[in-house]
Fold this sequence. Notes:
By secondary structure, chain A is of the alpha/beta class. Chain A has two domains: 4-110 and 230-298, FAD/NAD(P)-binding domain, CATH 3.50.50; 120-226, 3-Layer(bba) Sandwich (FAD/NAD(P)-binding domain). Helices cover 23% and strands 24% of the residues of chain A. In chain A, strands 1, 2, 5, 6, 7, 8 and 19 form a seven-stranded mixed beta sheet that branches. In chain A, strand 7 and strand 8 form a beta hairpin. The longest helix of chain A has 20 residues, at 279-298. Chain A is elongated, with a radius of gyration of 21 Å. Chain B is α/β, with parallel strands linked by helices. Chain B is built from five helices and five strands. Chain A binds chain B through residues 36-39, 42-46, 58-62, 65-66, 69, 80, 82, 123-126, 128-130, 132-134, 136-138, 206-207, 223, and chain B through 1-2, 4, 6, 9, 39, 41-47, 70-71, 77, 81-87, 99, 101-108.
Amino acid sequence: MGELFDVIIIGSGPAGLTAGVYTSRANLKTLMLAGEKWGGQLMLTTLVENYPGFAQGIQGPDLMYAMRQQAEKFGVMIRQENATEVNFATKPFEVNAYRGKSVIVATGAAFNWLNLPNEQRLIGRGVSSCATCDAAFFKNKKVVVVGGGDAAMEEALVLAKHAAEITIVHRRQEFRASKIMQDRVFAEPKIKIIWNAQVRDVLGESKVEGVVLTDGQTVKAEGMFVAVGHSPATKLFAGKLDLDEKSYLKRLGQKYKTMSNVDGVFISGDVHDHIYGQAVTAAGYGCEAALDAERWLAEGQS
Amino acid sequence: MLGLPWGMYIGKAMAAVNLTSADFDEKIKSGVVMVDFWAEWCGPCKMAAPVVEELSEEYKDRAVIAKVDVDAEAELSGKYGVMSIPTVILFKDGNEIGRQVGFAGKAGYVQLLAKTGL
């Protein structure tokens, strides 16, 4: 039988790590299944300017590293493995080869590709999901950014430091990005915007040569950066926890606000939040779930 | 940047060999060599780094696990068409036999190395 923990946290973004800080400080034996790729969405960002406490901003990966250190300091056992199997129909619950009296789900959201015919084939050959990783390879080149949220604005602004010309392709006639990010984009002379347009496919044999839009227009580019948001990472929970119509997990608790439809399974972060999606809100949700788990365990309900 | 000690995650023994354009061709021309193209400013590269170090330990008698800093070696990344990092390229006797673009966890690299029969 697998090792028994008071709390098993699935996920290692701001929600999961904050939950870990709280449960471990409450002396709950805590295991975190961090995933092979730990740290969540912030691992792919640069300067985070809206996380309170860092007046000069902080690099996303550095923020996550600091959170991880903080969680480990209080005794969270972090395993860099993906959660591949959960069983909530038994007590204690089972996650992979481990057993937990309670579980906090903090799996966050997974990156959305555009699902174009030639997109996957050209990943790493001009198609990218991470301007911070790859912008430097596009020095003095033309690139396309697809999307209209904060992530797309950041991609375009990071690329503006390297590329010759950036074209943002957005399906609506206005961005949903924050005002400050939009203003920075509008002020950057290297960035052009094509409104009300969608990409039909990306062109190129061995590397990206351009994109073709749904109206038939071709935009020449050596890079295409995708930033069209995320979808909740809930595949593992289908049929096991209640999901809403958009596949977000649902918090159904009454007494324990963050509890799912299964007693003892708590929900936190972007995996249930389709409204705010901020690092700081995710951290807040992680704290809520941890406090709920702590109280639920204290009441001896496990 | 706060300059946090990422090095702690990179492990104490830096076993992976750092390659430059001066010794790259010489180093890859025989045997199995797995090369991790990385840079300081790349978050996923920092996730990959400790895994690459682990592999260099685990495969030390069978393969050379190496790294190329793309900032210092733009020419090498250009030559091998690296446009996204981390990219790991697997060579056998000087020929590329596979590559992994983006961090895919330890399992991804083990799978890549398995292509050589290791």
